[in-house]
Specification:
GO terms for molecular function: ubiquitin protein ligase activity; zinc ion binding. With about 525 residues, this protein is α+β, with helices and mostly antiparallel strands. The protein has four helices and 35 strands. Helix 1 runs antiparallel to helix 2.
């Protein structure tokens, strides 16, 4: 019996058979009518002599017609049944998807943060959006449809993205492309939230007319040209000669690589950085969904990565590390897993699927275990290379063993795990069992203070190097967390640095996300 899908084809086949049979019957009918008409005409109007002439012909024709067999029964039957099979339909319905909804309403939803009033050109700025229901109560689930548009009167658009914290709050990260006044429209289900649109003033430096001291502190950077860097000046290292792209202003910058774009050596929101003993520098190019590989002196070598949500593809790579066996480990924030590739960029496996909520940074300890910083879940996962979970520690909060949006991790020569706690403005150190050892840092712009730390690395002496995102600088601490110095970045200021690592020849490489490039600095260990 024909299936439902092939019903039309089956009907067409039966129609052809019946049509051929009908044509045969009509042809036989025409023959009979023609012979009868001829005989009637001869008998009615012909003379006796004419009838005798055609008698034999008429007799033979009539005998032939009388003996002719025509198909009087249809060549097909009229059965066409449809049998309902519901098992497959039920399975399909169950796997169709999930219904998502929230109680959030635009009239009660609010946005907070200094970024609603002021931002610095090119510097990533954060705004928190808190969804509420009709009674003004906080919503505790994510998945609300929130859109944002940052534009100026001349049509200039700012770049930004909305991050769902899955707890009813959302983070809007944006940067203004130039100076001027921008309108920021924040909409929930196509309706403006409270206070939207907002007017934001973008400047290239601190606007002294700002009355908020906290605003000034948030935006000051020791790497900005109008602020003197209050730190020990680091002397030039033995690596200071023979480098291309030497900066005429005395600082620690050796060279920078990259501009905004999608080609080789170009970046869009670069995040994680890793280096190898063989002189490679790996960059997680987040919004280009790939990893780019360079030599220590900035020569492009290769890139790999295909955008997608299936194993082997990258949707939003944020962290990258190199395993002692040479494999490349990539934290994929949007795919919620960690992918493992060969040194040539061939996909091998994925780990953490179903456990991770938003992996940001990734590192490898001295046992070869993979350390994953889950930014959304506010915890640290430690896996074996085969994906088996070794341990997990941390949750959301501001306690010693808690995190608020942790970003990256590094491992020192004692196999201790050093984690940057972004919203708690601190760096925390744990052993491999997750036991808290120490923390350092507080919110501010002074020596040893942070405004949302991101990248972290450890040198051979145990000194800790930290990228300070909101203050756009790099600070150096000893192993106990005491401030030592800055890396001098005044000639070409950083804007929202992310991942950070030490190269095999002793330099510091940092992802300068706001400037769409990575920079290499001298570092005297």
């Amino acid at each position: 019996m024909a299936s439902f899908v092939g019903e039309e084809e089956e009907c067409d086949d039966q129609m052809l058979v019946l049509q051929a049979q009908l044509d045969t019957l009509l042809q036989g009918q025409d023959g009979i009518n023609s012979s009868c008409n001829f005989t009637e005409q001869a008998l009615s109007h012909g003379t006796e002599a004419e009838v005798l002439l055609v008698k034999k012909q008429m007799s033979e024709r009539l005998v032939e017609l009388a003996s002719q067999e025509l198909p009087l029964q249809p060549g097909e039957n009229d059965q066409l049944d449809f049998i309902v099979e519901t098992d497959g339909l039920k399975k399909s319905i169950q796997n169709m998807g999930t219904i998502l909804t929230t109680n959030a309403v635009a009239s009660e939803t609010v946005a907070t943060g200094e970024g609603l009033r002021h931002c610095v050109v090119g510097v990533p700025t954060s705004i928190t959006i808190t969804t509420k229901d009709k009674d003004g109560e906080l919503c505790k689930m994510g998945n609300a449809v929130i859109t944002a548009e940052l534009s100026s009167a001349d049509g200039s658009k700012g770049e930004g993205e909305i991050l769902d914290n899955k707890n009813g709050t959302y983070e809007y990260l944006f940067s203004a492309p130039k100076e001027g006044t921008f309108n920021l429209s924040l909409r929930l289900y196509d309706q403006h939230i409270k206070g939207s649109p907002f007017k934001i003033k973008a400047t290239k430096s601190i606007d002294v007319s700002q009355s908020s001291d906290s605003m000034k502190k948030r935006l000051k950077s020791p790497g900005s040209s109008h602020i003197k860097q209050k730190a020990i000046k680091r002397p030039a290292s033995m690596y200071s000669t023979g480098r291309r792209k030497e900066n005429p202003i005395e600082d620690d910058l050796i060279f920078r690589i990259g501009t905004k774009g999608r080609n080789k050596g170009e970046f869009t929101n670069l995040q994680g950085v890793s280096t190898s003993a063989l002189g490679k520098v790996l960059i997680a190019d987040s919004n280009n969904q790939c990893v780019q590989i360079f030599t220590n002196d900035g020569q492009f070598k290769s890139r790999f990565g295909i955008r997608g949500r299936t194993p082997g593809q990258l949707q939003r790579p944020t962290g990258v590390a190199i395993h002692p066996n040479g494999d490349i480990i990539i934290a994929d924030y949007d795919n919620k897993w960690v992918s493992i590739f060969s040194s040539e960029g061939k996909f091998k496996s994925k780990i953490g699927s179903g456990k991770l909520m938003g992996p940001k940074g990734v590192s490898v300890d001295r046992n070869g275990h993979i350390i994953v910083v889950d930014n959304k879940a506010c915890c640290i996962f430690i896996f074996q290379v085969n994906g088996k979970l070794v341990t997990k520690f941390g949750n959301r909060g501001n306690g010693d063993r808690q995190f608020a949006g942790p970003h990256f991790a590094a491992v020192n020569n004692k196999n201790e795990i050093i984690v940057t706690d972004f919203h708690n403005h601190s760096v925390k150190v744990f052993n491999t069992e997750g036991e808290f050892l120490l923390k350092f840092g507080s919110n501010g712009e002074g020596n040893g203070q942070f405004n949302a730390p991101t990248g972290v690395a450890v040198d051979v002496n145990g000194n800790i190097i930290v990228a300070d995102w909101g203050n756009s600088r790099i600070q150096v601490f000893d192993g106990s967390g005491s401030f030592l110095s800055y890396i001098n970045t005044s000639a070409d200021p950083l804007y929202g640095p992310q991942g950070l690592a030490l190269t095999s020849d002793g330099h510091v490489v940092v992802a300068d996300s706001g400037n769409h490039c990575f920079k290499v600095y001298r570092y005297l260990q």
